[in-house]
Amino acid sequence: MLSALRSSLLPAVKLYLLGLKVLLVQLFSRHFELPVMPRQDGKVAIVTGGGRGIGYEVVRHMARLGAHVIIAGRDEQEGLAAVTRICEEYKEAKVEFNILDLASLQSVRQFVQSFKERDLSLNILVNNAGVMLVPEGRTEDGFEHHFGVNYLGHFLLTWLLLDALKDSGKCGHFSRVVNVSSSAHRIGKIRLNDLNSHRCYSAHAAYCHSKLAQLLFSSHLHQDLQDGGFPVSSCAVDPGMVDTALYRHLWTPLRLAHSIVAQLLFKTPAEGAATVLYAALSPALEGEFGGGYWANGCREMTTPPTFDPQLQLNLWETSLQLLGL
Predict the structure, then answer these.
(1) Which 3-state string (H, E, C) describes 246-308?
(2) pTM metric for this prediction
């Protein structure tokens, strides 16, 4: 009983202390301002979770620059409303919404099949959608919800779209995969024999583990693409603490405090989107200068497990097996 309580409480305490530290650093640091980015006419981008929050701001900015942007999400009403708002703001915007439920591998496959049938190029993939601190549950395919949505769904989506990304990239104009991560990966752990968090479940721990898995995937994918000589790069971005709906599953007392604190101290979604957009669009990150882990407009070092090539490979191969690839 005591052990189970400790397993549940300790990750929560660690995550909230980390959040406090990140918030303090954020408060005393100058927020990154996105430089003027080049036009994106003729380019096609997919942004998961692009109907609100950071994802919406990413879609909005790309559309303003002339890119054809596909919002991929599970809430059709929200997605179509986002398309309407952007098209009202920018009359020439090329924005559309397609259904994608990352908690369903079948939905991921259907989304990719539908996209490929249109014979479009694919220059940018932003893996932005995510869940945090959701109650214990399983996806349609039986995976723990954080692991299934934040990591495995995006793994499959990226894997199935790799050919399109490779075909669309060229020297001097690499295709890019941008994985929206979190500083929470710093306290995550990868247990290859318990990726679904069956032992002493903690939503806080599961979220952190999924974000570490995402970072390991991003690093391994980038290295694999560079070794193969493909014109595609992959990087991870920490947008910081941003005032979005992601925090709606916080413990009740913290949720009440959050509604006040976030408006005063957190970044706005537009500010949170700045580094994501920089990673996706900046000429400074072209080719060999791509990859890595980015926060507040800068490339950052992160925890040692992230750079462990054996752990990256083991997780990669395990993920392929889980997905039957």
Answers:
(1) HHHHCCHHHHHHHHHHHHHHCECHHHHHHHHHHHHHCHHHCHHHCCCEEECCEECCCCHHHHC
(2) 0.92
